[in-house]
Amino acid sequence: MPGVTLKDLSKRYGDVGAVNGLSLTVEPGELVALLGPSGCGKTTTLRLVAGFLTPEAGEIWVGDRCLSSATSVVAPERRRMAMIFQSYALWPHMTVAHNVAYGLRFKRGLARADREHRVREMLRVVQLAGYEARYPGELSGGQQQRVAVARALVVEPEILLLDEPLSNLDANLREEMRFEIRRLHEAFAITTLYVTHDQAEAMVISDRIAVLDHGRVAQVGTADEVFLRPRTRFVAEFIGRTNLVEGVAESADTLVHGPLRLRVGGGLAPGARAAVSIRPHDIGLAPAGGARASAGHNALAGTIKRASFLGESVDYQVELPGGLTLRVAAPAGRRLLVGAAVELTIDPAVCVPVGEEPR
Amino acid sequence: MRIDRSLPVWIGAALALAFLMALPLGWLAWVSVSREGGGTTLAHYRAVLGDPALSKALWNTLVLAFWVGLVSIAIGAPLAWLTARTDLPGKGLLRALVMASFVTPPFLGAFAWVMLAGPNAGLLNTLWRAWTGAERGLVNIFTMPGLVFVVAIYTFPYVYIMIANTLALIASDLEEAAAIHGAGRLTVALTVTFPMVLPAVVSGFILAVLQALALFGSPAILALPAGFHTITTQIWSFFQYPPKVEQAAAFSLPLLLATALLLLVQKRLLGRRGYAAVGGKGGQRRTIPLGLWRWPALAACLLVMACAIFLPYGILAKAAFSRAWAQPLTWSNTTLANFTFTFFEYGATRAAIVNTLELGLLTASVGAVLVALLAYVSNRRLILGHQVVSFLALAPIVIPGVVLAVALFIAYTRPPFVLYGTLAILFVAYLTKEMPTGYAQSDATFRGIPPDLEDAGRILGAGRLRILRDVTAPLARSGIIAAWCFIFIGVIRELSASIILFTPNTKVMSVVIFDLKEEGQFGAIAVLGLVMLALTFATVAVMQGLLGRDVLGARE
């Protein structure tokens, strides 16, 4: 089972660079999610890997085969890949069984009986046994999705590509299918690239997440890593909600913003402008005078400007001296009122320095 | 890099197209400025533009086209609104009748109206005299207003289609949004509905004007006896002995430029129409109750249809079955002699029918395959310059049939390609002329097949040609057959190019009908006309079955 390596890939549409020098390594058997907002180049990257597009620069390697470079591109049909499309791309004029069996026609030395057996077996795996003779138009969205999955997996591809496969499903089904896809990945362990704009989906499904921004990888890591240690401002803001505090680094572990001095986990360049990300739920909140900050934690006085009840938690906006406003997510148990004086406690370890995004 | 084996197919199709277009038009432009014995000159342009008779023809054409545009709107716009938005009874029937008017060969309509409203023997005038005892007839079709009328009743469907399709895109909630903000019915119509439909009205007007500019048959039948020319009849008369090809070329180019310019304007207008479709999805279109006005409205619609369909078809049928078409249809006046005369006695007919069918089948088959390839190339962006392919395939729409014929005449009467006098030159003419219609149909077909469906097969191991066979072709089949039908219908009714390119051995049905007019054989004209209509409607029926919707929706 080979892995995939993308080296300095670039692809432009007219004057717009969709992918700008993107590099990424996917280990054999690994599932990596390409996550980013629309227009970040994730789908273009996937189509480059599939061979539907030719890169202007860079290379795509699968194992020791170079599949794409600016000068030569292996046709999609010779890449031993499979792909699941956002639209499912089921052929409306073929039955479920014919759809699923199609890729097997191009496997040499496969007897008809073998083929039929594998189709039946795969339909059983995706829980569609008995639907062989139906046409795609006669299936529900979730069932169509399963046919698309079966059609891709039955050929036992070296690489599996998924392009927002769940975005056409309703919310409940989407959540169910996330676990289903993860289960299938664990069963088949195919090297997989998974494009999505939904961070929760990426977190549930993938081994690692590559966050894409302007056609580059802004950060690649496990869900924990990109959430807890975002490397750039873009990653911090795109994955979950966050507070960004900008200022000047006084030392490696102190950031100054107006009258505020914030102790952070370290890693700042002294004297330079810097920004740190603090997640709303990492901030402790108590009525003024009621907080007991642990030694070394930041303790900041502020006033509640707005409080929104969200069910499981309350979302507060707290204004600090100097005008900075932080969002704080506190448990819904005890409610503080707008205008109340409060004290915030922040562990320096949750103040994560973030760099500027590469341009 | 392995060369895609399918590439030569695409490039071949694109080259065939460029050749079809470039050679004749190049010759046309060249001949219009070439001097006898070498060199270039503007003498031909000076000759045609300086001649007062020709200027008069030019003026007549402008008058005709302008009024046809206006009358088409006056008929097409209310009809579109009534059938799209109100509870008018018989909407389905009316749509079918509009479609019938759309596919009726205009020159047949013109013949029919000669029999209906000719100043002396015209049926309406005879009846009028009989009823009122008046000396003079009621109407004379051999006049400019008569010509405008006859052209407009077969041209208004262009306006109708544009407006009906636009109205279908405007959801009622846009109008209701205005109403909830306090606008009265009239205000809503004036401030919301009308501005949204306006681009469609203007572009329908332009299409109607274009039709009128390019038309040869009706002016030849109605204007020539009335003693005036239009551009197209004038160009045709340049080809009467002794032929003045250079002047025809010089007279053709201004017409070509005018049509090109008009289409450019129309394209601009439609390009900005995008807003009409915004939110069109899911919007309900509520019908407006007409109340008691339903019946007068229906009567008005039926009156229009009587002029376009009932009366002309009726008089054609009558003429086909009677000894003397102007006499009442009594038992003694009823005969099948016209049929025996047409099919067995008149020399040219059977050969012409065979020629027409042969050309129709051949052009439709070659054309359908060619436009399918071209539409596929441009939709899937298979070769560099695929936009040029699309442009070239649609370009012949600006070439009036007569102009195309002049260009082909020039290009194929000299080496290296001497086709004049053969059916091949008619084939090339029809193929070029019908290309835009067929291409538009094919383009819509391939646009309806998402590329994902092909990509899904390729990534599973199928090559492009294999995917074409397994996925694309089955999905595109009915759309391609529809394109075939469009081309076939266009070919069997073609007159304006045929009238210049035919030779005694290569006559087609429309040309024979035109010849029969010279001999005053109205019975035989009616018989051939009915044959042509039968062929047309049979093809339309096939197409409707295939597309599962009526044909009007497909023509944008």
Describe this entry's structure for a reader.
The complex is a heterodimer of chains A (359) and B (556). Chain A is α+β, with helices and mostly antiparallel strands and 359 residues long. Chain A folds into 2 domains: 4-235, 3-Layer(aba) Sandwich (Rossmann fold), CATH 3.40.50.300; 241-354, Nucleic acid-binding proteins (OB fold (Dihydrolipoamide Acetyltransferase, E2P)), CATH 2.40.50.140. Helix content of chain A is 22%, strand content 35%. Chain A has 8 helices and 20 strands. Chain A has a 6-stranded mixed beta sheet, with helices on both faces. A 5-stranded antiparallel beta sheet of chain A has the order 13-12-11-14-20. The longest helix of chain A has 18 residues, at 171-188. The model of chain A has no long low-confidence stretch (mean pLDDT 89). With 556 residues, chain B is an all-alpha fold. Chain B has helices at 7-33, 43-50, 52-85, 91-103, 106-117, 123-132, 144-152, 156-169, 172-180, 185-214, 217-226, 231-238, 245-271, 294-321, 337-345, 347-380, 386-394, 401-411, 423-447, 451-459, 464-492, 498-501, 509-518, 522-547. In chain B, helix 1 crosses helix 18 and helix 19 (423-447) packs across helix 21. Chain B starts with 6 loop residues before the first helix and ends in a 9-residue tail after the last helix. Chains A and B meet through strand 6 of A and helix 20 and helix 21 of B.
